Amino acid sequence: MKKRLNKKARAVLADPQTHRTLSARGMLQSAARIFGLGLRMRASCYRTGLFRAHRLPCTVISIGNITAGGTGKTPMTLHVARLLQRLGHRVAILSRGYRGGAEKKGGIVSDGRDLLMTPAAAGDEPYMMARLLKDIPVLVGRDRVASGRLAIARFRPDILLLDDGFQHRRLHRDIDIVLLDSTRPFGNGFLLPRGSLREPPEALQRADVMVFTRWHDGLPEPVSLLPESVGSRPVFRSRNVAYIDQNIPSAAGPAGVAQDLDLSRLNGTRVFAFSAIADNTDFHRVLGDLGCQTVGVEEFADHHAYGSRELAEIGRTAGASGAEVLVTTQKDFPKLPPETLWPLPLVVLGVVPSFVEEENGFDDFLKSSVEKTGGRGSRPSP
Predict the structure, then answer these.
(1) Whether the Cβ atoms of residue 70 and residue 282 lie closer than 8 Å to each other
(2) What pTM, to 2 d.p., does this model score?
(3) What phi, psi does 191 have (nearest 5°)?
(4) What local confidence, expressed as pLDDT, does residue 257 receive?
C-alpha cells in the first residue's frame, strides 16, 4: 500500500549515534545544526523584543511539546477544555489545522453547536475535537493571532486554548503546558531533521508545567530526565485509558453485533488494527492493555487519507488473518468513507488521559493557575 510508514526513515530518527560522514545521517546532522542556529536566533529576537508577542484580552493557555509527532496533545486538549468548561469558563480552541484545506486562510470548524467544515478542510485533530466537544468553538489557521481575534469577536471566550502551541510564540500565553512522551521524552536527542526535537530540552524553561504522557510502571522518575536549567516546575504523569467511541456493525452480520461489543468483550478477541497517527506503537500498546489478540496490523503515515480500495484490501486481509473485529482510532474515523461496507464489525477507540499522581492533582493545579490570571489573562489589546 502507498504511504506506509518509511521504516528506514524511522530507524534514522531513532538512532542516537552521531555520524560525521557524508551519509544520510551526516547530512541530516548538518541540517540539524543549521536548524538549531535558526532557533537560537529566533529566541534571541523574542528575548530582546525585536519580535513581539501579541497579547489578547483573555487568558491564553497553550498545550504543546518539543518533539515532532504524537505525545497525546489532542486527548489532553480535550481534557483541559472540558475541565475549564466545568469550571464555568467560556472556552474556544485554536488549532493550526495541519494539512487541512483551511490551514492557510483560517476559519471556524465548529461554533460549538454545528460542524462547519469537512475533515479535509479542518484537518484531522481539529475536526475530531469539534465532533466531540459541545458548546466549545474550534477554529483553525496558521496565524493563531488572527484566529484568536476571530474567536474573541465571534464567541467572546474568556479562555483561548492553543492546540500544539508551544512554538507559536507570536501569541502571548499565560500558561504553557508541555507534554513529553515518557518512553522517549527527547527522541534520539537530536534536533530536526536528524531527530524529532523541535527545540532543545532547555526550551522547557518557558514551560509552566510538564506532563509525562504514556506513563507506565518501570520508567525512570520524570524529574531525573529533565535538564537542571528547567528548575522545580510542576511535573505530572499520565497514561492513556481507552474507551469505545463508535461501534459499527458488519455489513455481512447481524446489526446488533457491533453494539454489543464493549471494552471487556475485547479481551481475548482477535482484532485487526489499522491506523494513521503519529505514534501507531502507542495504539498497539493500548490494544495489548485491553487484552486484544492482535492478528494483523496496517500502519500508515500520520494524516493519511484512506481510499475505498485501501479499505477493501484491509477488509480482505483482516478476514484472511482470522480477525473477528476491525479496530481503528478516533482520529482515523472521520477519514473513513461513510459508505464503506465493513466485512467485520468496526470498533473505534478513543483515549483519555488518566493522571498517576493524587486524584485531581493536575486539575487542581490548572484551576489555581487560571484563577491567578483572573480568568481574563492579559487585558491589553495588541
Answers:
(1) yes
(2) 0.90
(3) -75, 160
(4) 59
